[in-house]
Amino acid sequence: MKKIIIFIVAFIAIITLSSCSKSYTNISNSELADMLLNHPEYQFVDVRTSTEFYDTKIPGFTINIDFYIFEDDYSLLDKLDKDVPVVLMCNSGNRSASAADIFVKEGFSVVYNLENGIQGWDGETT
């Protein structure tokens, strides 16, 4: 009986772990600086509004997809490659964290989120 209980518990644990969804990774300023320098092939996506994007931006973030628009229209993500890592940023890190959840749900393989957004960024802006 004890072996059956252990088997059932192990089986449930395996099923539970295998059903866990992928997630995104929060990154710091130094990690972003490294990615911008050493991984220009990554997709750097700013999910702020176009007004925010054109006002001040982190060099290297060349793609702007307004979170408030794409949260209701995921087809805006079709122009991105799901197999190339995506780095997301916004003003404070909140919209980009929500966007990261959507990107993961939509099948993007590697998703990064800049913690604290552009407000917390200590590098160059334009």
Write a brief structural summary.
By secondary structure, this protein is α/β, with parallel strands linked by helices.
Q: Can you put this structure into words, describing what you see?
A:
With 126 residues, the protein is an alpha/beta fold. The chain has a single domain (23-120), classed as 3-Layer(aba) Sandwich (Oxidized Rhodanese, domain 1), CATH 3.40.250. The chain contains 6 helices and 5 strands. The protein has helices spanning 2-18, 29-38, 50-55, 67-70, 94-105, 117-120; strands at 25-27, 43-46, 63-64, 86-89, 111-114. It has a 5-stranded parallel β-sheet. It starts with a helix and ends in a 6-residue tail after the last helix. The mean pLDDT is 90.
Task: List its salient traits.
single chain, 126 residues, alpha/beta, Oxidized Rhodanese, domain 1, 6 helices, 13% strand
Q: Tell me the distance between the termini.
A: 68 Å
The largest beta-sheet arranges its strands as: 1-5-4-2-3
Q: What is the number of independent domains?
A: 1
How many strands, what sense, and barrel or not for the largest sheet? 5 strands, parallel
Question: How large, in whole angstroms, is the Cα Rg?
Answer: 18 Å
Helix content: 40-55%
Looking at this structure, what is the CATH superfamily?
A: Rhodanese-like domain
The low-pLDDT segments are none
CATH uppermost class: Alpha Beta
Query: Number of helical runs?
Result: 6
Q: Assess the beta-strand content as a share of residues.
A: 5-15%
User: Taking all residues together, what is the mean pLDDT?
Assistant: 90
The CATH topology name reads: Oxidized Rhodanese, domain 1
- Overall shape: it is elongated
In the CATH hierarchy, the architecture is 3-Layer(aba) Sandwich
**Would you report the number of β strands?**
5
- Structural class by helix and strand composition: alpha/beta
Question: Which sequence of SSEs, written as H and E, runs from N to C?
Answer: HEHEHEHEHEH
